[in-house]
Amino acid sequence: MSRKPAHTADSLLDAAADIAAADGAAAITMSAIAAATGAPSGSVYYRFPDRAALLSGLWLRTIERFQRGFLAALEIDPPHEAAVRAAHHVTDWSLRHPTDAAVLLAGPESFGSAQWSAEAREAAAARQTLVNDAMRNLADRLGYRSEADRERLALLIIELPYAAVRRSARNPDADLAGMAQAVDRIVRDAMEVG
Hints:
Domain HTH tetR-type: 6-66
Keywords: DNA-binding, Transcription, Transcription regulation
Order of helices and strands: HHHHHHHHH
GO molecular function: DNA binding
CATH superfamily: Tetracycline Repressor, domain 2
DNA-binding region: 29-48
Shape: globular
Protein name: TetR family transcriptional regulator
Number of helices: 9
């Protein structure tokens, strides 16, 4: 019977996320991950051949985790409720996953996206295409045909909730739950959902 590895890719990425949330992406190094997990540096390099692979792995894992619920919310019927639920997902997910939310708020550039492998950049672009397509589909279901209407929809259900999350991330005493409720109310009012 084979033993389960002591230091999995996920446990190393968890440590990277913790470091990013506490000290920023620049603090993520292979030696910092080894020290945080107690893993031999060889184990870190075995899972991630270089820092760029580690950083892209963290970004891609985090964005996939976030998008799972966001994309599902965009498919809800009726479409007005989908918009409300998608916006709510941004704040709710951030409340439940503050470390991962800190990674997303930093953005891919903070994680050295210019140095990622072509494969990692393609995977990140594919993840963005999923969101773009789902947003386009929701706009169509809502009857939004103009580019201005589509842009307003993105501002309402993506940018507004992220602004609330960013604002509370800068203030440790902020009431993210209260901000989430305020965002929900704004989006419901804008979408004319009771």
